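Re: the pair you flagged

First of the two:
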Amino acid sequence: MSYNIKIAAWDVLREDAAVIRNEVFVIEQNVPAELEMDEMDAVCVHAVAYDAAGVPVAATVKWR
């Protein structure tokens, strides 16, 4: 199986990254949503992995 990794600003990847982060951290790991999504998202670089069909998969990175 092949994957495509997109690296971009939050405004570009927000929709896909937020869904994955909510599922993994807020729902599965019980991290409060207000701690998971914060003001640092806007100034960090993000990465999301997509499968061959273009569906975002459970891989996100946030760094500054």
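Second of the two:
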Amino acid sequence: MRILDKNNEIILSLEDYKSLIKRIENLENKLHAEDIEKRGRKMFMDKPSKTLGESITELMQDVSEEEWEKLPSDGSKQHDHYIYGSPKRE
């Protein structure tokens, strides 16, 4: 198969067309990978707008006192029990 122009002259052979498409796809993949790498680098290089502690404090403000009271008081000591259902430790 050949790609012809309006004067029936060959523009691209099928093999050349496939090769060109493959090169374009490879270039797109390379550019996409470079873009992802740049975004990742920027994300880790930029100073965060908030510290982790500030973010946690902000999230905790939305939890009512009633909800805090529902949490077990021994949660840190008995975390295996509350997470996995294992017997409580004494």
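Strands lie at 2-4, 10-13.

-B.
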